[in-house]
Design goal:
The complex is a heterodimer of chains A (about 575) and B (about 400). Chain A is built from 2 helices and 38 strands. Chain A is mostly beta strands and about 575 residues long. Chain A has a 4-stranded antiparallel beta sheet, with no helix packed on it. In chain A, strands 2-3-4-5 form a 4-stranded antiparallel beta sheet, with no helix packed on it. In chain A, strands 6-7-8-9 form a 4-stranded antiparallel beta sheet, with no helix packed on it.
């Protein structure tokens, strides 16, 4: 709005655009002295310090180099302790020598340390350009298998008693040589075999790489607007170790592509898993299950696809859960800098309401670029909090944009119990406040003390294991095993009730960004000693109820057996 | 048109008040400045720059001339040259009103927010105003410094309780804090102060929708969509509001419309970004103008073509496009001038004679229309359109 002698109507048009895309930043640090949040970076002492994500960058600034990668937790040997699986990244053929393995597997020694068992587990020989993992028992043989996305062929690894076999060829999953990102296992048609949704990003190759710049002189990493999106794919599990591409049949076409995150939810409580998808610079998507494993996309109509001005954002990580007393599910999506985290709570019918501002998450998240994002009960007080891993894609962004940084602290938004959050990180010291180039993020109680620990991957950097030392509250951890549905019990809903609280949790894979968290459900009991009631709604529609369960432990529940087995 | 006349009057008075700071200015130079200002206002940017060049020969220390050059360069997105011009203004007259302000606004365009704040503050030291405070608030808000932004907007309101923009922007801050009630309260005051402002109507509609009052938001969105059929955002939110009150058919209608408009909006934004980054690239401005024109955003399209014309001043096609847009905008005087300019360079362009005649005819100047079409026939005696048009006059 230049101070022209002749103001024109155009000025006001400019104003309306600006007013909604600008403004806001970090919330002032909380002064709540009663709250003690303590995470400790145990990466080195845990034996993970040697890991480095590799981008293969040699100066070409190829788009994929800025995006990876993920990692997470897997119990590869079935001992009940979370092991760690990390994506190593990759190098470019012909540009540099074959580098480190594409995958790194770390065995949990059950004493707070991990040991690199990549080779022993049969994962050392794969060299590719990798991005994400998702874990599930796809063949219902009671162990954790995993699917690995790359820029070329994706890989399905079958767990054979603690070692893995690459069973991609012939699985039906190996055909599409597309840039894949986040994948999610879920039983879309509830036939007892987990199906697979594989996110695809853009049509990029070294041959069609575009020159992008921040300063007009030197090349920098591009953003996805310049490339055509590639639709994601959906594969039905045939129950015999193979999958069939049912993308179109299931209603996943057409789609704009540029997908980076997917979260399973059941917002309409019909017992069938729905899917929320975060898309980068495209509208976010909401697939409602038609009750037969096919889907209808209702994102735009539902109100969750765009920001309040109908503008598509750069969606990255995503998660969904019940975070307030409404009992309705809320979808959270991490977005680009100058785009606040999206918060959409289910309203009624197919409609969602934008609660980014009301939740108090919007403004503090405005300046950060969020990739990994998940809901978990950080301090075991019975509500879901929100953790986000942040980091920009443009090296040197701080030199061209004020208030935006390449390396960024994490966010830990603590929930007041009714869906109002505040970011505790600016008011605490410690690892969460350290600026990093965050990408993947996942959680698990790796040390089995009841608290949920955080694993964050960095682009072209180390991994971080943040041990959760907020263990003054009580907890109950629940593993489910379905006998009539998929073995992992994915899409099982658990409702835990204490005197003052009702907690709704789901067993799921996916969420966050290219990463996998444990499927064990954690109920934070606060100062309560017991969980008064636990309702388990199995995927087949049946329900089991348990009463007066003492906390401070982890229990296993097998569908139909009517008993809790303590670990 | 009346509004335009009023604005021009305001412009002229402001301009002369600026000149009055230099009572010793040569009347001839003052005349040249007036000519340059008129050329600038009418979109003849090259002419405006040429006249200021001439003026500087005789009056190299005239801050007014450099100030005008700064504004022309800003219009042409040549922000570095604008900065040089404004700096020169301030070296000649450190108290020149508007120079720091305009530099601040250019800094915002360049995303250099700390510089923008510094410039605005310099302006405030000389000429405190609510308008400048609002700009400071805007820059702070963009930087994420919310308390400072709030303070600036509140200060603007204290300075001028009728500053609608301050209320709107303060409301926006409250919205982001999650206090929708307060946001609506402030936005309502803003709209009351500027009740015809469609942007404000859109904002209030959006706040009401956010506040789960879809029915109440409808008239605001409808007011925008009726006047700005290209306004994607209002169409989208109108669709959302209709859906939420149960009118799925109309809701889907507007969502579909929005989807179509979205493509155009994205195209415009892409071209605008590229043009601003590469202001000397003719085709970027042409493409921007075309994409704006396709959306029915006539004034903005004209602005883009005018910049293009400054890069390629002999382009008859651009002149013709601009003239046509002037005509669509109801500015027949400008349209006629543009057509005549083209014909002064090439009188054999039959289509231009045709257009010129149409403007005259539609303005009731039958003889002028006849003359123009006859001229056209001199160069294309078989032109049936011209003949048909002439027949209508008989």
């Amino acid at each position: 709005m230049t101070m022209s002698l002749c103001p024109s109507g155009k000025i006001t048009v400019f104003f309306v655009v600006i007013i909604f895309i600008a403004c806001e930043s970090k919330q002032p640090a909380s002064t709540n002295n009663e709250l003690i949040i303590n995470f400790t970076d145990v990466t080195a002492s845990a034996g993970l310090a040697d890991f480095r994500h590799v981008t293969g960058a040699i100066g070409d600034k190829w788009f994929p180099e800025s995006m990876g990668s993920g990692g997470g937790f897997i119990d590869y040997n079935g001992d009940g302790w979370s092991d760690i699986l990390l994506v190593g990244g990759g190098t470019w053929p012909g540009k540099s020598a074959v580098g480190t393995p594409a995958l790194f597997l770390y065995h949990n020694n059950q004493d707070g340390t991990f040991e690199n068992v990549t080779a022993v587990a049969g994962l050392a020989d794969l060299h590719t350009y990798g991005f994400g993992i998702t874990v599930a028992d796809y063949d219902n043989d009671d162990d954790d298998d995993f699917f690995f996305t790359t820029i070329w062929q994706n890989h399905l690894f079958r767990n054979d008693g603690g070692t893995f076999t690459n069973v991609s060829l012939g699985s039906g999953l190996e055909k599409d040589l597309l840039w894949s990102t986040t994948a999610i296992f879920f039983d879309a048609d509830q036939d007892g075999w987990v199906d697979l949704y594989v996110g695809s990003y853009v049509d990029w190759s070294p041959e069609n790489d575009i020159w992008c710049t921040l300063d007009g002189n030197t090349k920098n990493y591009c953003t996805p607007e310049l490339y055509n999106g590639v639709p994601s794919r959906f594969y039905l599990n045939n129950g015999d170790g193979t999958f069939t591409d049912k993308t179109e049949w299931a209603g996943f076409l057409p789609s704009p592509g540029k997908m980076l995150g997917a979260a399973e939810l059941d917002f309409n409580n019909d017992g069938w898993p729905d899917l929320a998808v975060a898309s980068d610079t495209q509208r976010d998507l909401l697939y409602v299950n038609n009750g037969n494993g096919t889907f209808k996309e209702i994102g735009a109509v539902s109100g969750m696809a765009y920001d309040e001005n109908g503008r598509a954002r750069a969606g990255m990580g995503i998660d969904a859960g019940v975070v307030d007393n409404s009992g309705k599910e809320t979808i959270f999506v991490g977005n680009f800098s100058k785009e606040m985290i999206s918060v959409f709570r289910h309203q009624s019918g197919n409609f969602f309401e934008d609660r980014a501002a009301l939740s108090k998450i919007g403004r503090p998240s405005l300046m950060t670029l969020t990739f990994g994002l998940f809901l978990f009960d950080a301090e075991l007080d019975g509500d879901l909090d929100l953790f986000t891993a942040n980091g920009h894609v443009q090296i040197g962004i701080e030199h061209t944009q004020d208030g935006i940084y390449y390396r960024e602290p994490s966010h830990l938004f603590l929930n007041d119990g009714d869906g109002h959050f505040f970011d505790i990180v600016p008011s605490i010291e410690g690892p969460l406040a350290n600026p990093i180039v965050g990408r993947g993020a996942s959680y698990s109680d790796y040390d089995k003390n009841g608290t949920l620990d955080i694993l964050v991957t960095e682009n072209n950097g180390p991994v971080h294991l943040f041990r959760n030392d907020n263990n003054k509250n009580n907890f109950l951890r629940v593993n489910v095993k379905s006998t009539t549905g998929n073995r992992n019990g994915l899409s099982t809903k658990l409702v835990g009730i204490t005197k003052n609280n009702r907690m709704v949790r789901r067993v799921k894979t996916g969420s966050s960004f290219m990463s996998h968290s444990e499927t064990t459900v954690t109920f934070g009991l606060g100062s309560e000693e017991t969980l008064d009631s636990l309702y388990i709604y199995w995927p087949n529609g049946s329900m089991e109820r348990f009463h007066n369960i003492h906390g401070g432990k982890e229990v296993n529940i097998t569908e139909g057996q009517g008993k809790l087995v303590a670990q | 048109m009346n509004k335009k006349i009023v604005l021009i009057t305001v412009c002229l008075s402001f301009f002369f008040s600026a000149c009055q700071k230099n009572p010793g200015i040569d009347p001839a130079v003052a005349g040249l400045i007036f000519q340059a200002e008129t050329a600038f206002r009418n979109g003849y940017y090259n002419a405006a720059l040429a006249i200021t060049d001439s003026s500087l020969v005789n009056s190299p220390h005239s801050a007014d001339i450099h100030f005008l050059r700064g504004r022309v360069f800003t219009k042409l997105a040549r922000l570095n040259e604008a900065e040089v011009a404004y700096r020169t203004v301030l070296s000649l007259n450190p108290n020149y009103q508007g120079a720091w302000f305009n530099m601040g606004t250019n800094s915002i365009r360049q995303d250099d927010l700390p510089a923008a704040i510094a410039h605005y503050k310099s302006e405030m030291l000389l000429y405190p105003s609510a308008r400048t405070m609002v700009q400071i608030g805007r820059a702070y808000a963009d930087l994420g410094k919310i308390d400072s932004a709030t303070f600036a907007y509140e200060d603007a309101i204290k300075t001028d309780s009728n500053n609608a923009a301050a209320y709107m922007r303060l409301g926006h801050l409250y919205k982001d804090r999650g206090d929708i009630t307060k946001a609506i309260e402030y936005a309502t005051i803003g709209l009351d102060l500027d009740p015809e402002n469609l942007d404000y109507k859109y904002i209030i509609g959006s706040l009401l929708l956010l506040n789960e009052e879809p029915k109440a938001s409808l008239p605001f969105f409808r007011a925008v969509t009726s006047k700005r059929p290209w306004h994607y955002w209002a169409h989208h939110n109108l669709g959302q509001a209709l859906y939420r009150i149960g009118d799925e058919t109309q809701g889907q209608h507007y969502m579909d419309l929005a989807k179509e408009l979205q493509k155009g909006i994205q195209e415009v934004e892409n071209w605008r970004n590229l043009a601003n980054m590469n202001p000397d690239q003719l085709m970027l401005w042409v493409n921007l103008g075309n994409s704006l024109k396709n959306m029915g955003r006539i004034q903005e399209a004209k602005d883009a073509f005018l910049v293009a014309l400054s890069i390629s001043p002999m382009s008859f096609a651009l002149q013709n496009n601009i003239a046509n847009l002037c005509l669509m905008d109801g500015d027949t005087v400008q349209a006629i001038n543009r057509y005549k300019t083209i014909l002064s360079f090439d009188s054999t362009l039959v289509d231009i004679w045709l257009n010129l005649g149409v403007v005259h005819a539609s303005s009731g100047r039958i003889n002028d229309a006849r003359q123009a079409w006859m001229k056209g026939l001199e160069h294309d005696s078989d032109n049936t359109t011209l003949k048909d048009y002439l027949e209508t006059l008989d």
